[in-house]
């Protein structure tokens, strides 16, 4: 059964056509990643599905009673009241139910007729049963649990929503959607305002859901972990692929190679037939054979290759390398009023390190970068840069330093004076400014657009020490991948803050955890850091359980320091457990995916044959092909179902391992 059926959707903005007779379906367990180049209509399609925008023509049919929740990139508003009350009030029907309850109670208090009192009493009992159901599924304790998972503290729950900043308002809106638990969640860049701890919680919460999802995200890892299908807005139209984002990239590349091979085969056959016709067409003895080959030539299929999106490969300007010690902090302290952010902070960066700074919101990540960049003075201690260090610093507020009178191209071109304008246009294209966009004045750009211009300027400016604060916030997936590729080839030192798990995992060689005014370094990327934190948590729980068995109810479990030997042993044991539990399921999924890929290719060949009108002149030849095509279709449906079941088993296994 389909949850949504979209038929013949058309949408255009002026001369730009986004959708032209586009059709697709969404099932009740489809978890779809919506991908495509900037400007292809991802957010517009999301709005159409949410009913926030109407197509020029076409229809969208929803299953009866289907509930849809939508989180746009730009939030329109939040209900008034405290944070927790606002989140609870987003659940449809609650306010009406409470109003009916109050009305019935008032009527019962005034009613004097005994029969009427009995009737109102029964109605009141039924309403209380309904309200109990709401409390069980959508009550305050659920709302508070979700809000805390998204980073709200106990003291924040009673704050009025009007006092929240933009990022926190988005978190509250997201909490409302998670509490509603709709049949379909439409999420447009939901991780933009989350830090690493809340992103980790949100990722786990979403993976436990079996409801339908349509997701736009520039975080490759998050996308991979959440979806089982990719809908891609390609140049040739909307395409659907089984699997996650990595599966889509592999299948797309394989599809391209298969089409190229088929095109080469067809062209070789075309050349062979044409050669025979040219050679023997005029000879009477061969005229009949030449005529036959002319017909064969006419019937040869036209193989249309997939159009590839243009990609930009960026290299940083060359600059003399720095000394071994790039930056040193000794005894650094910083406070804002009574809030102590750092006290006696010691840290050192060495040449070539790529360090991701993580920590809860308000821990001091941005403050650390500002202090190193010299944009914020420390209250105490010493901050020094090493020999020959040339720093580049990106923060979103740098967007306000751009010259509003310049066009985008005029603002950026001077930084690459030795490069042709086509190169600068290519770089700007990677940051989502294409064609005439580069001639727009800075003054008319949105905050996000100005932030992208500032980021492009940073990458064109020579440096050997880069500080970057949330550089992917205003990028799409393709632009984020371009930035990752560029930074992987960067020869300098990198210190960055990012909530984007894929970005951090692709770049970090070290993680700095900002906690209690100190920096705790961990070797490895974000996944390795999170794995280590999980082992510490499990060890603390085990010690707490052991202490309880020994009759020490007053002891408090704490994550005591773990020796390197113990850490490696714990990690090896956990890896072994994970391989034992997940390994067989992953093998099963790989086998199913291999069978799906082969059968899909076979079905395409059958469909090409069935599209030939001459086939049906000989029904005895057509019928077996029709039967095998029908059987292949049924087998594919069964394989898709088996793949979904195996993915659910894998998610459950992963959840059981923590």
UniProtKB/TrEMBL annotation:
UniProt cross-references to InterPro entries, sorted A to Z: AAA+_ATPase, ABC_tran_C, ABC_tran_Xtn, ABC_transporter-like_ATP-bd, ABC_transporter-like_CS, ABCF_ATPase, P-loop_NTPase, Val-tRNA_synth_C_sf
Region (Disordered): 542-578
Keyword Repeat: yes
Signal peptide (UniProt feature, chain positions): none
Coiled coil feature spans: 94-121, 249-276
Pfam families: ABC_tran, ABC_tran_CTD, ABC_tran_Xtn
Family that this chain belongs to: Belongs to the ABC transporter superfamily. ABCF family. YbiT subfamily.
Protein name: Probable ATP-binding protein YbiT
């Amino acid at each position: 059964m389909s949850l949504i059926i979209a038929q013949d959707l058309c949408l255009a903005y002026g001369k730009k056509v986004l959708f032209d007779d586009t059709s697709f379906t969404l099932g009740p367990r489809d978890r779809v990643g919506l991908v495509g180049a900037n400007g292809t209509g991802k957010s517009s399609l999301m709005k159409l599905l949410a009913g926030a925008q109407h197509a020029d023509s076409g229809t969208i049919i929803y299953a009866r009673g289907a509930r849809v929740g939508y989180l746009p990139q730009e939030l329109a508003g939040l209900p008034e009241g405290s944070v927790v009350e606002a989140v609870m009030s987003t659940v449809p029907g609650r306010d009406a139910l409470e109003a009916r309850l109050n009305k019935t109670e008032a009527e019962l208090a005034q009613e004097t007729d005994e029969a009427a009192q009995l009737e109102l009493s029964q109605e009141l009992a039924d309403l209380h049963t309904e309200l109990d159901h709401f409390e069980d599924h959508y009550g305050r304790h659920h709302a508070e649990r979700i809000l805390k998972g998204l980073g709200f503290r106990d003291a924040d729950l009673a704050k009025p929503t009007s006092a929240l900043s933009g990022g926190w308002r988005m978190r509250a809106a997201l909490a409302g959607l998670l509490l509603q638990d709709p049949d379909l969640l439409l999420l447009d860049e939901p991780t933009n305002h989350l830090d690493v701890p809340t992103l980790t919680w949100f990722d786990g919460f979403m993976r436990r859901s079996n409801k339908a999802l349509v997701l736009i995200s520039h975080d490759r890892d998050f996308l991979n972990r959440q979806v089982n299908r990719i809908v891609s807005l390609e140049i040739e139209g909307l395409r659907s692929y089984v699997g996650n984002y990595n599966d889509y990239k592999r299948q797309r590349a394989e599809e391209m190679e298969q089409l190229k091979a088929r095109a080469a085969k067809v062209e070789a056959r075309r050349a062979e037939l044409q050669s025979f016709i040219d050679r023997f067409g005029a000879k009477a003895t061969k005229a009949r054979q030449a005529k036959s080959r002319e017909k064969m030539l006419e019937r040869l299929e036209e193989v249309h290759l997939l159009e590839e999106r243009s990609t930009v490969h960026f290299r940083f300007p060359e600059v003399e390398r720095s000394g071994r010690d790039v930056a040193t902090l000794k005894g650094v302290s910083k406070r804002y009023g009574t809030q102590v952010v750092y006290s006696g902070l010691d840290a050192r960066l060495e040449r070539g390190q790529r360090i991701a700074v993580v920590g809860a919101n308000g821990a001091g990540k941005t403050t650390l970068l500002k202090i190193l960049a010299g944009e914020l003075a420390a209250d105490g201690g010493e901050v020094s840069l090493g020999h020959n260090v040339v720093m580049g610093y990106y923060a979103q507020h740098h967007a306000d330093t751009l010259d509003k009178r310049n066009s985008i191209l005029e603002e950026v071109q001077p930084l690459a004076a030795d490069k042709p304008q086509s190169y600068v246009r290519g770089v700007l294209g990677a940051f989502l400014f294409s064609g005439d966009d580069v001639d727009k004045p800075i003054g008319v750009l949105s905050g996000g657009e100005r932030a992208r211009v500032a980021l492009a300027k940073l990458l064109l400016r020579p440096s050997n020490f880069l500080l970057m604060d949330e550089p992917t916030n205003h990028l799409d997936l393709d632009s984020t991948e371009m930035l990752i590729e560029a930074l992987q080839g960067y020869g300098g030192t990198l210190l960055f803050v990012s909530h984007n798990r894929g970005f951090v995992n692709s770049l970090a060689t070290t993680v700095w955890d900002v906690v209690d005014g100190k920096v705790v370094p961990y070797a490895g990327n974000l996944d390795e850091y999170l794995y280590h934190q999980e082992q510490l948590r499990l060890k603390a729980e085990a010690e707490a359980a052991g202490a309880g068995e020994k009759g020490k109810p007053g002891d408090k479990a704490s994550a005591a320091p773990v020796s390197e030997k113990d850490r490696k042993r714990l990690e090896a044991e956990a890896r072994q457990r994970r391989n034992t539990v997940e390994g067989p399921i992953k093998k099963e999924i790989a086998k199913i995916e291999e069978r799906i890929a082969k059968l899909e290719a076979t079905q395409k060949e059958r469909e090409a044959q069935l599209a030939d009108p001459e086939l049906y002149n000989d029904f005895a030849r057509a019928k077996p092909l029709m039967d095998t095509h029908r059987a292949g279709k049924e087998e594919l449906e069964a394989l898709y179902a088996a793949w979904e079941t195996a993915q659910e088993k894998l998610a459950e296994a992963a959840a059981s391992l923590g």
